[in-house]
Amino acid sequence: MKKLLLILLCLPMIGFGQSKQEIYFEGEVEFEDLYDGINLISIQINKGELAGELVDLYFQVAFEDANRVPCKGNAELNGSGEAEGKKIKGKIIRSTGEFENYESGGTYSKKIYRPIELNWM
Hints:
The chain contains one helix and five strands.
């Protein structure tokens, strides 16, 4: 019984503190693009935690993106550029992207934002 109690006290809580914090925003689409498996939009944020920043939101960073998350909402973005200048709101999360270095053929990681909900205003 003492061993079980010791294990339970020493066992870290899996997932504790690792939930992905949602960041609400409102802004305007400055740029949208789809190329080489990378699908992104740039948003000029004017309301929320990131107000005043121009933020790139990545739907995916490669053809096979292990960290891709589903995005819901009524804003459909396909990389055509038709959304540029439109008002948008939603929720994003901080994430990691694995990008290919075309010169070396290797990959590198960087912190990025990913949309989880996007809606036209």
